[in-house]
Design brief:
The chain is α/β, with parallel strands linked by helices. It folds into three domains: about 70 residues, Nucleic acid-binding proteins (OB fold (Dihydrolipoamide Acetyltransferase, E2P)), CATH 2.40.50.140; about 160 residues, P-loop containing nucleotide triphosphate hydrolases (Rossmann fold), CATH 3.40.50.300; about 45 residues, Orthogonal Bundle (Ribonucleotide Reductase Protein R1, domain 1), CATH 1.10.40.50. Helix 5 links the parallel strand 11 and strand 12. The chain is globular and about 70 Å long. The chain binds guanosine-5'-triphosphate, magnesium ion (MG) and zinc ion. Guanosine-5'-triphosphate (GTP) binds next to helix 7.
Length: about 375
């Protein structure tokens, strides 16, 4: 049987490959020139964005063996392949292409992924064994195997890792101009999580129709200047929806961000047939009410998949070693080799190239403060 973790399996025609993992520390280089990226980002088109993705770290050095290929999981007799589209309590909803099956997860898989909140998650490719109908048995199938994962959105939840979605190409980080006000610290946390999870981040400023003072546009510009793909949208006034659709097309995406920013509204604007439930925002409290309660994977009529997620107020990064955060701040990365101490944390040290850049105004102080905040307190609740 294939190893469900996918690390050592050779079953099912999956190919064993050596893949390069980025080193935590060391010499770093940028993929492209910052100013060139900034120009592209301000007026980015989807094609060039896909060809030239922003990479957080340059050096590739560590290796480990994983299994690639859609059929890396060996299908044993009677097992049916499918994709997990939602988790409902202990059960996974699995789409086999013809219908949705409510499946439980074989205990051995739960034991293997004991450090995870759930052994399987939305986006996982699985093989399940249909169960004969029995009185008192709720599950229609039992998940026997889970395929290897690519891009993941993960955070800490209690003592465990919460994998919100797996096998995702890009994270669309949605924020909005007003109600609720954008929180750049939270955007920075999402960015670190996206880079660490192997996804391409895209930052979307929604409710641009409410941006009368330009505050939202100003924050978005910071990120465009750094080289990130950005876009402005209005789900209620049909602004930027075509571009949003172009971004989603043929990709697997997760839409993430605070509650009430309009994630589900944007998806409804892009695909009216989805008919996702959207909430009300109390203007006075400027807080969303967690209208979406479960992450759900949906197939897009124009190609690709998207996962809508419940809003999260905080993003606990403490599953990522904090020495790695610096590498996910893309404007710090090229400076780090110039810090005097190889293990510089860019806080109390002298002759720190990052701090010097902040003083000179070439690194934004807000971004530096954000880095310091997450380094000091990765699990901070009130970001
Ligand atoms: N003015 C304006 N309101 C919007 C826009 N997009 C969404 N809204 C409103 O914002 C509120 C929240 O939208 P949702 O789509 O439920 O937000 P969400 O991000 O999915 O929230 P959760 O599911 O709780 O995480 C709703 O009342 C929407 O009508 C927009 O572009 N402009
Ligand atoms: Mg929602
Ligand atoms: Zn330094």
């Amino acid at each position: 049987m294939a190893d469900p973790s996918g690390k050592n399996s050779s079953g099912g025609g999956g190919k064993k490959v050596r893949v390069a993992f980025r080193r935590n520390r060391g010499k770093r280089k940028r993929v492209t020139d910052v100013t060139q990226e900034a120009k592209q980002a301000e007026d980015f088109d989807v094609e060039s964005h896909r060809n030239e993705r922003v990479v957080a770290k340059g050096d590739l050095s560590r290796h480990r063996t994983i299994v690639v290929g859609a059929d890396a999981v060996e299908a044993n007799a009677g097992q049916v392949p499918g994709v997990v589209i939602a988790m409902r309590g202990r059960y996974a909803e699995v789409d086999d292409g013809t219908r949705i099956w409510r499946c439980s997860v074989r205990r051995v898989l739960r034991t293997l992924r004991i450090e995870e909140r759930n052994a399987v998650t939305v986006g996982d490719r699985v093989h399940f064994l249909p169960e004969a109908e029995k009185e008192g048995v709720v599950a229609e199938g039992v998940i026997e195997q889970v395929g290897p994962r690519t891009g993941v959105l993960q955070r800490r939840s209690g003592k465990r890792t919460h994998t919100i979605a797996a096998n995702i190409d890009q994270a669309i980080i949605v924020t909005c101009a007003r109600a609720p006000r954008p929180k750049p610290n939270l955007i920075d946390r999402y960015l670190v999580a996206a880079h660490a999870g192997g996804m391409t981040p895209i930052i979307c400023m929604n409710k641009i129709d409410l941006d009368d003072d330009g505050h939202g546009a100003g924050i978005l510009k910071r990120y465009a200047t750094l080289g990130y793909a950005t876009l402005t949208t209005s789900a209620v006034e049909d602004g930027g929806i075509e571009k949003f659709k172009d971004l989603l097309k043929d990709q697997s995406s997760v839409v993430t961000g605070q509650s009430g920013v309009g994630k589900s509204s944007l998806l409804n604007a892009a695909v009216p047939d989805l008919k996702l439930r959207v909430g009300h925002v109390s203007e006075t409290l400027e807080k969303g009410r967690h209208t979406t309660t479960t992450a759900t994977l949906m197939k897009l009529p124009f190609g690709g998949y998207v996962v809508d997620t419940p809003g999260i107020r905080t993003f606990d990064l403490s599953i990522i070693p904090r020495e790695q955060y610096e590498a996910h701040f893309i404007e710090f990365a090229p400076l780090i080799p110039n810090c005097k101490y190889p293990d510089c944390t860019h806080s109390h040290e002298t002759e720190c190239a990052v701090k010097q850049a902040v003083e000179q105004g070439t690194v934004l102080r807000e971004r530096y403060e954000s880095y310091r905040q997450m380094y000091e307190d990765p699990g901070r609740q009130d970001v």
